[in-house]
Structures
1.
Amino acid sequence: MDATLPTEDLVLLPLGGAGEIGMNFNVYGFGPPDDRSWIVVDCGVVFGRESATPGVDVIMPDIRFLAEQRQSVLAIVLTHAHEDHIGAVGQLWPLLRCPIYATPFTARLVQDKLAEAGLTDKTRVTIVPLGGKLVLGPFAIDFMSITHSIPEPNALAIRTPLGVVVHTGDWKLDPDPLIGEPTDARAFRQLGEQGVLAVVCDSTNALVAGESGSEARVSKSLFDLIGSLTGRIAVTAFASNVARLESIIRAGRAHNREVALVGRAMHRIVGAARETGYLTGLPPTIDESEAAELPPDRVLYLCTGSQGEPRAALARIAAGEHPTVSLGPGDTVIFSSRIIPGNELAIFDVQNKLAALGVEVLTERDHFVHVSGHPAREELSQMYRWLRPQVAVPVHGELRHLTEHARIARSLQIPQAVVIQNGQMLRLAPGRAEVVDETPSGRLHLDGKVLVEEAKGHARARSVLGYAGFVAATIALDSRGRVAGDPALILEGIPDPVHAPIRDALGETVRRHKPRRGDEETLKENARRSIRRAAASAWGKKPITRVEIIWV
Ligand SMILES: [Zn+2]
């Protein structure tokens, strides 16, 4: 046996978030390869898209690799409360049944998720104070406060017998974040001086030059903009950006407007923030029905729906379907947000509807009303200069973000920068990181109330249904296997001119059928093919086709 072979190693295994933005789920393992202890860092979702996954609102990682050895999973540790970091806790916790750790604001929102999933009696989130420490088997974890676009973002310094890994979570360097302290540069620099094995880091804005900008500057700009407007104002922003909400509420009040929160998420997040010690001393908000009674210049609505979500407040206001809020000529909607790629059409649809009502729409293209919560290139470089790790591992990004992030790290003389994707297990050893294994990975769809494997293809089948409809044919055979009567046909979503060719092709197949014992399968398959061929020739599309045999 090779005496230099380590008996214990440290590995990183992303099961989500490496190769995509969203669905963050990173696993660290320590121990001998056949008996590792695991910790999970973040447990997030990505939202489905109607065009790609019709009927699926939420997608999460397939964690069967961990579920099969759940007795070795020590904990789920959550860095912050964005959905792409905590959104899957309610569905995936039952597969792991391990303790959950988070700082107070995150814990408060995760507790809601557990309640929604009916798990309140089964588990609770253990609260870690800001800057707190946690020991989990071979892992000693320091929570390091950092800045982002939600209260209480944490980087984790994960200490192991083989070295320290800094898992950044989502972050930026905001000199004036309004809520929470600026990032403690000294703490990160000290870690770097002690020696960091690896940095596992946010790649979202690796393609963006410069710096992300400060929340305080947005606050000032929004204040001036809101002061310059007449008529009703509605501002839409991510509800989780509590600092932004506070800026907007204060600006509204300072300009003599009453502020009403509109949309469930606004009330939920503001409630959670107040309960955990944020938004204290904020002027009171009023009910949306009270706001409707006030003169236009005295009102500011703070709304959900900045991504064009069809059920959110702003989409309903734009469609004229909101029960209490209506906007019209002379009023203004400010999108204090960015367009998340993939949401363009939904957002533009809402903006078109607002324009049709005569409402002026202002976005980050018109005014300085938003900053990103993720590090642009200058900030990434700063972090690497502080930490000087032996290895950089970009996560939280599509492949194009990960590769650019790796290039930036290499340009800063970080010895090794490794791009891995979901399911690739990376061994982190002093002086060398390498992919040592590929584990089963994949995606689960929350389809209505049911969790199903993406690979089973139900969403894909619905996508085909939407494109080319559905044909069901029933053929009756008598006891000697002869066709009895005309086959019955059901055609859904098939244009009229295609019906006759399908009917004729099926009739022809049935007529040509020579009864032989046990030959029904051949008849079914021939009928199915003839229907699809006829549809393709008459229409240019192949519908989903089912053929059943009944015995009469
Ligand atoms: Zn985040």
Note: Residues 520-539 form the longest helix (20 residues).
2.
Amino acid sequence: MSLIDLIKPHIRELAPYEPGKPMEELERELGIRESIKLASNENPLGASPMAVEAMRNALNEVNRYPDGASFALRAALSARLGVDENQLVFGCGGDEILELIAKTVIGPGDEVVYPWPSFAMYPIVIRGMGAKGVPVPLNREFVHDLDAMADAVTEKTRLVMLCNPNNPTGTSVGAEAFERFVAALPADVILAVDEAYFEFVRRPDFPDAIALLSDRPGTLVLRTFSKIYGLAGIRIGYGICDAEFASYLERARHPFNVNRLAEVAALAALDDEEHVRHTLEVNGAGIEYLTDELGKMGIETWPTDANFILARTGEGVFDALLRKGVLGQPEPLHGSNDHTLS
Ligand SMILES: Cc1ncc(COP(=O)(O)O)c(C=O)c1O
């Protein structure tokens, strides 16, 4: 008997997560300074100053456990979103919400339909529960192929993931297509709509996934404080769903999964209208600039509703940018060598 025999087969098979090198290390290796990291779609303007101030004020209280119910944040967010307080589940980043869904609804023998390329965590959480992932390629415009996704649902499907807007393409699906897709989904399949980039959306016909919750209780909408509020490093995200569904997710989480500083930071960030306004302004201007300037260079880009943009750069551009201190995210899409820039 060796150690590996004691490890669950589906955990053995997982490729270990390989964190990127810290930027300081890359800078040292490449002999550059003031590099620009675009690869994780963070907020380049920094964290909400109001959130930073709130964390500073809470530093002396870290001897106390966090509020396991996130009482104040829950009240503020439920008022903001127009949902009941018991329809919210908080997690250590949106990543943990994904894990809670997986832990709660899937296991060996189950299938999960998800778009691909999309957020890298989907196949990891699916395989981590011993379930089978069924990736469905994006269509030629790099948008979710909703018909193909609906067709991929079988009697074994327990969960369908949608990433809207999609990471890494920035593309999104509109209300009409979304509603048609939802109507085609069997009621006994959980639908998780990952809206990590919701606050950046520009298209006017973006679907109102929260409005779906009353008709379709097996639905969850995922959001995060990591992107627009610039709080990626403190780790807080949340799910919005039917109250009964939330009660099961609550059973699956550990009591202090959201730390004390994250709770106060998120609460303060919600009121930081200036930081949100500035972030949206800079992001919008950046998208216009990159679309225009890359277009002038003959480089194709795709419409984006997020804080990054997909560009067809061809080979070698990722490395050339890296040498100049700009870290993008290479994406081999449909066999071509594309490249996303946030
Ligand atoms: C589509 C998508 N979902 C979820 C997340 C998770 O975000 P976090 O765990 O930082 O809240 C990310 C982060 O990049 C993302 O791109």
Note: The mean pLDDT is 94.
3.
Amino acid sequence: MNLAVTRALLNGQAVGLRSEDGLIAELGPSVEPSAGDEVIDAEGLLLSPPMVNGHTHAAMTLFRGFGDEMPLMEWLRTKIWLAEAKLHPDDVYWGTRLACLEMIRSGTSRFFDMYWHGGEAARAVIDSGLRAAISTVMIDQLDPARGESMREGVLESLDRIADAGPRVAPSLGPHAIYTVSSESLAWLAEVAAEREISLQIHLSETEEEVRDCIEAHGKRPAAYLDELGFLGPRTVLAHGVWLDEGELELIAAREATVVARPAANMKLAVGGVLPYPAAARAGVRLGLGTDGVSSNSNLDSFEEVKLFALSQKHASRDSSTLPADEALAIARGLRSPALGGTLLQVGEAADFLLLRASDPELSAGDLDADLVYAAAGSVVDTTVVAGRVLMRDRVAPGADELVAEVRARAARLTA
Ligand SMILES: [Zn+2]
């Protein structure tokens, strides 16, 4: 069915929007519904582009609050990796469904995911109505022989993700340079190039990772990845906290994307944030992500964009660093073609939000600044993806059942 939105506010003007076959067909002050359209009367609501979550581990809703306040490596080794050993594929389906619900409720239309059982995550994305790049994870614990024995399984998983449906893009997600061998990283880069799909990896999260890389390979992490053929326009690098200027220039030259995730950096106390001023000077393509909820602990991109802007101002001791409109453009995935952000324009995907203009947080002041500094995801009234209404009047169908399902599974996994 086609969708018509009437009386929505855009740049201070009441407009109508019609979508046909998942694309914006008409947008403007004189647009009216056509016969047979599903109609949303948006009086008092602001039309807004959606958020793009550039890095997460969606199914980790199963591990929310599990092992909080621990050092990163101890947390992974003594909590997360042990609990993950008990994961069933259907746990990933339900955990991802809950994550999708959370993202729908906080205005995200698309996300980049790295987690086990990608086929199940892809099925959850299709059933939720969102869009996602779902990666097949690889961790060979720096053992090339083990990596080689995993290759067939990686390709099978990739095919399953690719077959999931139209809103899911297959992707490859080696965990990090300290958990995946050079041989496997180079192989994954080849597969991604052959299939023209994205590569996702954690990079330069801690100073220890940088020190170890220099010790093992004689170069810094970005240069190491580049040598393996890993950096290109479809590469999405999460973290980037300790990238130096030379690495930023290299990443910019390769047109790779760096995704900041400030909440998780601060919660895990890594001691820094993405060097945004230097990255912007170098022309690096940027995005914003929440990371998984066990290191955030939510998937609210409105909260994340506030932390992004504030942490950058704080770190640079300059309140003019990363102004609200730029922070918002990054959070909407508009500062990297790889992230697939959408604008409100005819011919673009019918992915958009209706925000509650009457909420106290949006009652006065510049809209972009309010969205970054004042709002949370709770200002989102309606979320539409591919012309389909996923939440209306803050009601997303099936929410209670999803919470109950994940609560029961989380209890089993973390027992
Ligand atoms: Zn992550």
Note: Residues 55, 57, 202, 238, 291-292 surround zinc ion (CB under 6 Å).
